[in-house]
Write a structure and sequence with these properties.
Order of helices and strands: HHHHHHHHHHHHH
Main location: other
Number of helices: 13
Low-confidence stretches: none
Distance between the termini: 46 Å
Number of strands: 0
Family: Belongs to the beta-catenin family.
Keywords: Cell adhesion, Cell junction, Repeat
Shape: globular
Largest sheet: none
Strand content: under 5%
Protein name: ARVC protein
GO biological process, one term: cell-cell adhesion
Structural class: mainly alpha
Number of domains: 2
Radius of gyration: 17 Å
């Protein structure tokens, strides 16, 4: 029955595909499968999230954030967001994936090095939001990767209301950590950068 989907062997199979394949469609499909299996709060998805970590799948997914394929970056970002619902995964993803996630965000000068679509930028922003929620340490990691500049630029100048809203949610979450405000202010940021009108 459907329980076969949730066996460690299935996770190993998807991770093997993600490691070995060069085909963007195959990579997107395998990341999408992990994304779906790890979604939600039911018993099996909790199990899948832990299994992906135990099978050393997180570094495989983080590496795929460097893909030249918009759809692969999107599927991997959403998979990482779902996987970060597990606390241990969240800590690891915050430590090791934040730089790659931030690199996929557009800057003032350009959309991003890969010119990612709106849906992908929003997926990356939502993943960052999930990773920093309930984790000032991950928010600190975001600050250290120069993510604030990109987030402020998106919130102030993006042509996409969805990107603006997603970036604003991340900024508000960062500002909610009072212990980070001194460091932010030393870098020249103030409350107005984080309390964006939507």
């Amino acid at each position: 029955g459907f329980e076969l989907l949730y066996q460690p062997d299935v996770v190993r199979l998807y991770l093997s595909i993600l490691t070995e394949s060069q085909n963007f469609n195959t990579l997107e499909a395998a990341a999408g499968a992990l994304q779906n299996l790890s979604a939600g709060n039911w018993m099996w998805s909790t199990y899948i999230r832990a299994t992906v970590r135990k099978e050393r799948g997180l570094p495989v997914l983080v590496e795929l954030l460097q893909s030249d394929s918009d759809k692969v970056v999107r599927a991997v970002s959403i998979a990482l967001r779902n996987l970060s619902m597990d606390r241990r995964n969240k800590d690891l993803i915050g430590s090791y994936a934040m730089g790659e996630l931030v690199r996929n965000l557009p800057s003032r000068q350009q959309r991003s090095a890969k010119n990612l679509e709106e849906d992908t930028v929003v997926a990356v922003l939502n993943t960052i939001h999930e990773i920093i929620t309930d984790s000032s340490e991950n928010a600190r990691s975001l600050i250290q990767t120069q993510g604030i500049q990109k987030l402020v630029a998106i919130s102030k100048s993006s042509q996409s209301p969805r990107e603006t809203k997603a970036a604003s949610h991340v900024l508000q979450m960062i500002w909610s950590y009072k212990e980070l405000r001194n460091a932010l202010q030393k870098d020249g940021w103030n409350k107005s950068h984080f309390q964006v009108k939507m």
